[in-house]
Amino acid sequence: MNNLLDITPYNFVIIGCGFVGSVIARKMAERGKKCLIIERRPHIAGNMFDEVDENSILVQRYGPHTFHTDSEEVWDCLKDFGDWRIRDHLDHVEFSSDPLSGRVYHNHPFQDAPIEPVVYPFNFSVIDTLYGDKARELKETLLTHFPCRDRVTITELFNSHNKDIIAFAELLFELDFRPYTSKQWGVDPETLDISVINRVPILLNYGTELVKVTYQRVPKEGFTKVFERMLYHPHIDMLLHTDALDHLRIDNAAATALWDGKPLPKGVTLVYTGAIDELLNYKLGKLPYRSLRFDWQTKYMESYQPGFLVAYPKAEGYTRIVEYKKLLSQYAPGVTTIAIEYPLQAGEGQEPYYPILTADNKKLYEQYRKIVDAVPQMIAAGRLADYKYYDMDLAIERALEVVKAMT
Ligand code: UDP
Q1: Residue with CA at minimum distance from ligand 1 atom 20
Q2: Which domains, ranges and CATH numbers included, belong to the chain?
Q3: Residue 286 CA to its chain's centroid (Å)
Q4: Three-state secondary structure call for residue 35
Q5: Angle ∠(103,107,111) on CA atoms, nearest 5
C-alpha cells in the first residue's frame, strides 16, 4: 500500500506541472485558493523543461520551443515571469548567427545526397531552386491566385484548381511532407488530421518567418525559470517525483473519483493534465501518442550546422537535429551541443508527446472524454487530457478557459 496523501487542506489538486497545470495553479492561488501540484517527473515545466548542460549551454530537454501568440491575455499571463527576448528584432541577422531570426534551415529534400540546406519554411527561394527557369512563372501564378496573401497552407495549394499550383503542392508533399510526416507520426500522412501538416506554411515571398503573430518571444534564462517564478506563491505547494495515479482511481460504476480509496473531500477539485486513457486504466484500449528519443552529443567545434534547427525528411530514423547554442546566440567557444530527434511510439518508459490525430483515435478519445466529464469535482485539460496538438499559447488559453469556468 502506498503512503496516503492528505489533500484535505487544498482547494485544488493539480496533476501535472506543464503549462496548463501551472497556469491554473497560479490563477487560482491569486484568487486565494490553496493548490497542490503533483508531478511524476523530477522537475517542473513539463515538456518546456530546459537546463544548462555540461557545456554551459541552455538546452531544451524535450525538443525546441519558442513562444508565440496573438493573444494579449495569454501574453499577459506570462510576461511578468521572465525576461523575454523579442524575436522580430533579429530578423535580418545572418542565418548562422541567430536562429531566432526565423531562419530555421531545412535539409534540401529534393536531392538524394544532402546539399546546401534550403530555407524553412518553404518560400520563393525554394521555388527558384526547384523550378530554375520556370520559377518566375510559378511565383506569378501563385501571387495572382492568392492576392494579398503572404502565406498559404499546402491544403490551399491542393485545392487551388490550378494545375501548376497543384503540381507544386504534389512535389512538396512527395519530397518533404510525406517522408517527414510518415517518419514523425508512424502513420500514413493521409490518415492524419490535415491540421498537423497545415502547421507548416508556404510563404509567398522570400521571408523566413515560420509564424506571423504579435508576440514571438524566448525567455532569456529559459522556460524552467519562467515556471519557477509562476509557481512561487504562498498558496502553491508542490510534490515532484510523485505519481498521483498511485492515489487516484476513477470508480466507473459510480462515476466518481476516489482518492486513497475514499471519495474526494468536499471542496477539493482535481485538475488532471495527464493522458486520459491512463487515468481510466486503458479500459477502452490505448490511445496512441507519439514520443521522441533524443540522442544528445557534444561536438568540439564552433558550429555544427547552419542554423538552430535542420530538418531531415529523408534520413533514416531521425527527423531533425537541433543545435541549442544557436538558441539565444549562446556564448560557448569551441563547443556545441546537438540533439538528434528520433520519433517513436510512446510506450513504457517514454513520455507521450503528441496525440496521433487520426479519425479512429479521435473517436476513442471522445469515449474516454465522456466518462471523465461525468466525474464530479474533476476537470481534465491539456495536450494529453484533451488529446490535442496544442502549442504553448493554446495550452495557456485552455488553462484560462478552465479558470474562467471555475470562477
Ligand atoms: N512537417 C513536415 N516537414 C517538415 C516539417 C514539418 O512534413 O519539414 C509536418 C510534420 O507532419 C510535422 C508537422 O508538419 O509533424 C508539424 O511540424 P512542427 O514543426 O510544427 O512540429 P513540432 O515542432 O510541433 O514537433
Answers
A1: 199
A2: 12-87+219-284+356-406 (3.40.50.720)
A3: 21
A4: strand
A5: 140
Amino acid present at 254: A
Q: Residues near 296 by Cβ (< 8 Å), separated by ≥ 6?
A: 53, 59, 337, 338, 339
Query: Which residues sit with their C-beta closer than 6 Å to ligand 1?
Result: 106, 176-177, 180-181, 184, 196-197, 199-200, 311, 313
Burial of 362 (0-12, 13-18, 19+ CB in 10 A): middle
* CA 223 – ligand 1 centroid, Å: 22
The three cell numbers of residue 96 are: 548562422
- Locate cell 522537475: which residue? 43
Of residues 291, 284, 292, the one with CA closest to residue 361: 284
How many other CB atoms sit within 10 Å of the CB of residue 23?
A: 24
* Ligand 1 atom having least distance to the Cα of 389: 24
Cα distances from 145 to residues 14, 141, 165, 167, in angstroms, run 49, 6, 9, 14
SS3 state at 24: helix
Q: Cell digits for 38? A: 503533483
Return left, alpha or beta for 63; rule: phi > 0 is left, psi -120 to 50 is alpha, else beta. left
Nine cell digits for residue 280: 481510466
Is residue 105 very low, low, confident or very high in pLDDT (cuts 50, 70, 90)? low
Model confidence pLDDT, tens digit, residues 1-51: 569 999 999 999 999 999 999 999 999 999 999 999 999 999 999 999 999
Q: What is the DSSP letter of 264?
A: P
Query: Would you call the peptide bond into 121 cis, given omega within 30 degrees of 0 as the criterion?
Result: yes
Q: How wide is the angle at C-alpha 279 spanned by C-alphas 278 and 283, nearest 5°?
A: 65
Q: Are 399 and 407 in contact (CB under 8 A)?
A: no
- Count of CB atoms situated within 10 Å of the CB of 351: 15
Q: Counting atoms of ligand 1 from 1, which one is nearest the CA of 197?
A: 14
CA distances from 164 to 27, 123, 145 (A): 52, 16, 11
Tens of pLDDT, residues 125-183: 888 878 889 999 999 999 999 999 999 999 999 999 999 999 999 988 988 889 889 99
